[in-house]
Amino acid sequence: MSEVIVGIDLGTTNSEIAVVRDGRVEVIPVSGGVPILPSVVGIADDGTLLVGDAAKNQYVLHPDRTVRSIKRRMGESVRVTMGTADYAPQEISAIILRQLKSLAETHLGHAVTRAVITVPAFFSDAQRQATREAGEIAGLEVVRIINEPTAAALAYESRHKGARKALVYDLGGGTFDVSVVNLESDVVEVLASHGNNHLGGDDFDRKLVDFALEHLKETNGVDASRSVTAMARLQRAAEAVKIALSDQPYATFAEEYLLERDGVPVHLSLEISRDDYEAMIKPYIDETLDAVHLALSGAGLTVSDIDEILLVGGATRTPLIVRRLEQDLGLPPRREVDPDLCVAMGAAIQAALIAGVQTHTVLIDVTPYTFGTSAIAELNGEPYPYCFVPLIRKNTPIPVTKSEVFYTLFDGQERVDVTVYQGEDPDALNNIEIGRFTVEGLLDNALAGNPIVLGLSLDLNGILQVTAREKQSGLERSITIANAIARFEQDKLDEARNRVHALFVEHEVARPERDSQSDSRRLGVEARALVEKAERLLEKAGAEDAEDLVDAIEAVRDALDGDDASLRAAMASLADLLYYLEA
Ligand code: AMP
After folding, report:
1. How far apart (Å, rounded) are the C-alpha atoms in residues 405 and 450?
2. 295 within some domain
3. Which atom of ligand 1 is nearest to the CA of 202?
4. Which one of 56, 71, 101, 402 is the catalytic residue?
5. Domain range for residue 413?
6. Which of 26, 170, 174, 424 could form a disulfide with 200 if both were Cys (CB 3.0 to 4.6 A apart)?
7. Backbone CA torsion sign across 428, 432, 434, 435
8. Whose CA is nearest to atom 8 of ligand 1?
9. Residue of the nearest CA to atom 3 in ligand 1?
10. Quick one: 197 exposed, middle or buried, by C-beta within 10 A (0-12, 13-18, 19+)?
């Protein structure tokens, strides 16, 4: 057997090591079962060498004994101080590489002496040489240095044949790079790249910390930035809040006994919405998109030349990034390979190619369908009550949990109906309905716009858990949909979609006219939706119920020309009837 060659992503914030074994790519656990090692090195008070989480933990209190982000200094003739001694950047990087090597040896049960290491596409010769030297100091023969976007493209390389062009968008903790690459057979060529060495997820954390500091100043009159420990706690909390906001519409900073003011403890409990957070980070995202266009023009290409967008780096899990890229480039980014591990996986694939070992494509469990619900929004420029709102998108790795916020339409609205669909069509009625339920007993004094948080959780067995929660009261209802994934094979799905589509064409759905008063317009839209729903139920209703239903429908239709109050009253009667019929 030829000797194994490992692939290493030596990152600014985190590093990973992977290997191909039995034809499969395996990212090796390096930190308490997790395959991610923080790229931080330090010396403890007793002189012990710390690498990874232990060093990261001591950074805030002992920055003099800790070194992080050494990748930014690679290739410079400088020395960095750690404790009582000075080190070259290569030496600090070598400590990280040595730790990875030794953890891999323990995991694999044999020596590891050869590696492929990745570097950013923009790295100069001096920076590449310094990386090679770091490997050698760590006792590794560096068989090849490859570009990070090349590695990412290799990890994503699937059954595609022929040439294609990809845009690799890589946003990590502290660096941003975008590269345009040409993929042909097994050769990946970087055509152009651009970026900012000081932009990343850490900047997003900083915005959230500032937000919390401001709040503490306003509510408690304290300046928490003066306390090192309070700042350390806020920084950790901010990252957790940021990560939570990638999957849910609200998150809370909750830090008890953060600090003291005149002997009185100060607690922090501050909720932030995803909308507010997105407004904070928008300027950063704008900057990355400017770089995307610069890289494209550097490669002499336009948006329409790009066949796919590949996401790399933990911060690309931010939904705003995915949305903005899709809007700007007109195609949905691929994100089925874990963005934190993608580069190390690609490095391992390159290593296996060099060693002449067969590899399979990276195998990941992803959902083959999109799941979501419907809401009133614009479709083809018109307000429409059944716009599909995807929550879990096709090709998302599973298990996955996502939630979104929706709002009630009327003052005093007591219930909401939730319908869950599977499909891709912007019109929910063209997708497959896979479940529905009602949440009743909402706060009776709530005004229109009462937030309802809808959560979808899909597990590896294809079981979909759907939960709707009234945010203010905590009132919650949920359903479980078994076999959400296995429910329809593709041909059955197409068949069902055609069937629903045919139905839809036959029974033309009422699409409301525009009205200058937006409230009245919303009411009109909702009224027509109610009528449409009632008409669909007419077929199922018995003779007596059908008569009542027809009367109630007529009453709503008549009221459509009258004032809002009578329309609401007519709608309430019809809704009651529907509720009774559906029960
Ligand atoms: P990397 O350097 O690629 O390991 O990326 C690390 C950055 O990704 C850090 O700023 C993390 O806080 C950030 N990150 C990790 N997971 C998420 C997430 N789910 N949503 C947003 N940012 C994340």
Report:
1. 10
2. no
3. 10
4. 71
5. 371-481
6. 174
7. positive
8. 314
9. 313
10. middle
3-state secondary structure of 283: helix
Which entry of 9, 133, 157, 532 is annotated as an active-site residue? Answer: 9
Would you put residue 462 in left (φ > 0), alpha (ψ -120 to 50) or beta? left
CA of 330 to the centre of ligand 1 (A): 24
pTM score, whole prediction: 0.73
Q: Which amino acid residue places its CA nearest to atom 20 of ligand 1?
A: 243
Residue nearest to ligand 1 atom 18, measured at CA: 243
Of 16, 91, 148, 255, the active-site residue reads: 148
148 is catalytic: yes
From 12, 70, 239, 312, mutation site for ligand 1 pocket: most ligand atoms within 8 A of C-beta: 239
Please give the distance, rounded to the nearest whole angstrom, from the Cα atom of residue 230 to the centre of ligand 1: 22
Together in a domain, 504 and 521: no
Instruction: Write down which residue in 280, 297, 312 finishes a domain.
Output: 280
Kindly state whether residues 505 and 518 are assigned to the same domain: no
Contact 567, 529 (CB under 8 A): no
Taking only the tens of pLDDT, the chain with its 583 residues reads 457 999 999 999 999 999 999 888 999 999 888 999 999 999 999 999 999 999 998 887 788 999 999 999 998 999 999 999 999 999 999 999 999 999 999 999 999 999 999 998 888 888 988 999 999 999 999 999 998 998 999 898 744 567 889 999 999 998 899 999 988 776 788 888 888 888 999 999 999 999 999 999 999 999 999 998 899 899 999 999 999 999 999 999 999 999 999 899 999 999 999 999 999 999 999 999 999 999 999 899 999 999 999 999 999 999 999 999 999 999 999 988 999 999 999 999 999 988 988 776 555 566 778 999 999 888 888 888 899 999 998 877 778 999 999 999 889 999 999 999 998 889 999 888 889 999 999 998 899 999 999 999 988 767 889 999 999 999 999 998 876 765 445 454 466 446 545 544 554 443 334 344 566 777 787 788 788 878 877 877 777 778 888 888 999 999 888 888 888 888 878 877 776 666 5
Backbone φ and ψ of 542, nearest 5°? -70, 170
Do 146 and 31 sit in the same domain of this protein?
yes
* 278 flagged as catalytic: no
Same domain, yes or no: 249 and 350: no
> Residue 452 and residue 478: Cα distance in Å, rounded?
13
Q: How far is ligand 1, taken at its centre, from the CA of residue 316, in Å?
A: 7
Number of domains in the chain: 4
Of the listed 16, 133, 170, 470, which one is catalytic? 170
**Does residue 176 fall inside a structural domain?**
no
Tell which residue, 474, 492, 495, 494, has the closest CA to residue 483: 492
**Whether residues 253 and 345 fall in one domain:** no
Q: What is the 5 CA–ligand 1 centroid distance (Å)? A: 28
Ligand 1 pocket, Cβ-based, cut-off 6 angstroms = 11, 13-14, 172-173, 200-202, 239, 242-243, 246, 313-315, 317-318, 340
Residue of 168, 112, 115 lying closest to 146 (CA atoms): 115
Q: Catalytic annotation on 9?
A: yes
Residue nearest to atom 7 of ligand 1 (CA): 173
Please indicate, yes or no, if residue 231 is contained in any of the structural domains. yes
Is the domain of 505 the same as that of 519? no
pLDDT at 491: 56
Residues 396 and 474 in one domain: yes
* Last residue of one domain, picked from the residues 232, 248, 280: 280
68 falls within a domain: yes
> What is the whole-number distance in angstroms between the Cα of residue 130 and the centre of ligand 1?
26
CATH number at residue 468: 2.60.34.10
With vertex at residue 252, the alpha carbon angle to CA 248 and CA 258, rounded to the nearest 5 degrees, is 155
Going by their DSSP bridges, the two strands 187-196 and 176-184 should be labelled as antiparallel
Q: Are residues 152 and 213 in the same domain?
A: no
